[in-house]
Amino acid sequence: MGTADTLDVAIWRGAREGEYVTYSVPARANQTVLDVVTYVQRHLEPTLAYRFACRVGVCGSCAMSVNGVPRWTCRTHIDKVAKDRRLRVGPLRNLPVIKDLTTDMRPFFRKWQRAQGYFRAGQGRRDGFARVRPDSEARRQADAGIECINCAVCYAACDVVAWNQDYLGPAALNRAWTLINDCRDGAANERLRAVAGDAGCHACHSHQSCVEYCPMELNPTAAIAGLKRAVLKRTLKGAL
Amino acid sequence: MSARVQTWLWIVQRASALVLAVVVAIHLATMVYVIHGGLSAGQILARTRGSVAWLVVYGSFVTAAAVHAPIGLRPVLSEWSPLPPRAIDATALIFALLLAVLGWRAVLGLYV
After folding, report:
1. Hey, which residues 119-178 in chain A have their CB within 8 Å of chain B?
2. What would you measure as the largest C-alpha separation in chain B, in angstroms?
3. Is A187's pLDDT higher than 80?
4. I want to staple A157 with a disulfide (CB 3.0 to 4.6 A). Which of A39, A213, B30, B86 is the partner?
């Protein structure tokens, strides 16, 4: 345990093979986990690899496993997670580790593409403006999931991702659901085909770890349930 | 197996769950009644033999169970066992046939 002035911080060093190495870091008021990792890299271990950009909870780059829980480290205060002045920081689960705290995010973003998590215009420039009422059900459903910052915390938290390598995961499915609710998008059937089945929305067990750990407090489980309903309706109509 | 077939399996599993919700309730109520009433095996058979109503209840019970359980077995095996997808589907199919044969044998035993 760290003294009153220090924290004991165990940080993963290595890639797939490696070990936790403990560093003693000065305890300060209003310190985040990212501050602590940065201190270690600047003062104690210059070869430590980690990823961050904005430091204000917008870019989604700095997610790590903190005391076994996936978190955005720039907005996680030490007071909240290291009450006994101990901290264990590792790379996110369910992604290959490149080095130390840096994971290879490619599988995560490839699945985003596979779920067709990108806008495909249903109208051309000569068509009129789409009228989207702010209080319409579809707009509210899209709003509920649109603030995702692609940090992969939900992907690391999800047990189904750990068990089923092909599973698209909460973030990609949440994105697909926001697009299904975008009336300007013209690829709903293709997208629903892409997210249906054993590797898609039907694999979700509704454990809700994604809901529990999402730093933006989104509800991907509800989005996945929405996809299941949409796939059901269109399959019964013979559209898929 | 295509995503389309997997989607249909999911739909059929939900539909069979709806059937099970009803027939399991009937089954449990019947069991409580039978035990409290102290009916003998002979008295039970006297009620079920030739009864189309009981044939429908227990026939739909075993059919729904034979459909529902093997579909649920697929993800369990895929997530918790090292079996490849084809072996999992084959196992689920054999399990379905086993449940259907044993179940219908019991149902016909009550009816005939």
Report:
1. 160, 163-164
2. 51
3. yes
4. A213
Domain residue extents for chain B: 3-111
Query: CA of B8 to nearest chain A CA: how many angstroms apart?
Result: 8
Say if A6-103 and A106-237 have the same CATH topology.
no
Q: Mean per-residue pLDDT for B46-72?
A: 97
User: Cβ separation of A196 and B78 shorter than 8 Å?
Assistant: no
pLDDT confidence tier of residue B37, bands split at 50, 70 and 90: confident
Q: Which fold has domain B3-111?
A: 3 helical TM bundles of succinate and fumarate reductases (1.20.1300)
* Residue whose C-alpha is closest to residue B6's, from B64, B84, B85: B85
pTM above 0.90, yes or no: yes
Contact residues for A120 (Cβ-Cβ < 8 A; gap 6+):
A185, A186, A187, A190
Nearest to A200 among B2, B3, B80 (CB): B3
Q: What ipTM does this complex have?
A: 0.88
The per-residue pLDDT for range A144-165, each reduced to its tens digit, is: 999 999 999 999 999 999 999 9
Determine contact: A225 vs chain B, CB below 8 A: no
